[in-house]
Write a structure and sequence with these properties.
With 218 residues, the protein is α/β, with parallel strands linked by helices. It is 52% helix and 13% strand.
Length: 218
Amino acid sequence: MTAVTGGANEPTVFVIDDDSAMRQALHSLLDSVGLNVRLFASAQAFLALDLPDVPSCVVLDVRLKGQSGLAVQRHIAHTLHIPVILITAHGDIAMSVQAMKAGATDFFAKPFRAQDMIDAIGHALEADRKRRAAERSTAVLRACYELLTPRERAVMTRVVNGMLNKQIAAELNLSEITVKLHRAQAMKKMESPSLADLVLKADALGLVDRENRLTGNV
């Protein structure tokens, strides 16, 4: 059974609980504060869903019929990457520790305070919103990086890791003038007005070796 409220493009809370009374209680609570809610009686029904591309989080019961909520949480964390808030009527300290180590954003024993749940969901949706924005930003950077020629990439990688133009020239068997031209082209394609900006973008792409980065690049 699945219930839906709100629009398709709104931040969405997915509730997975085989207890119909708890599902309806969470539906009423979250609907009362204007949140888009989708209800699922099983993990299988949720995992079969084509998730909307909106900030999301999951409120998941630890004890589901035929499947461990902790196993479902790990699957969501590894494949969907959206925040999970765990709830249970049979929780203990060991279980909560295990859940948090597996990446749960919060763990609530039933019954829980309505405001605590609303606050936890608000934090989870904001975290997912930031993750999605970061992923979009990184995707734009990768698209820019794909425009670089192999030589421009080689020069850029060395520049952002602190090598001097003359060092790059010697290592790549190029003239310093050629290195400067490739460097300028790389900055143009990466839409970087400064070396500092280029380094930040390269770091986001995983091109900067923070431990071994040199200083004094000119």
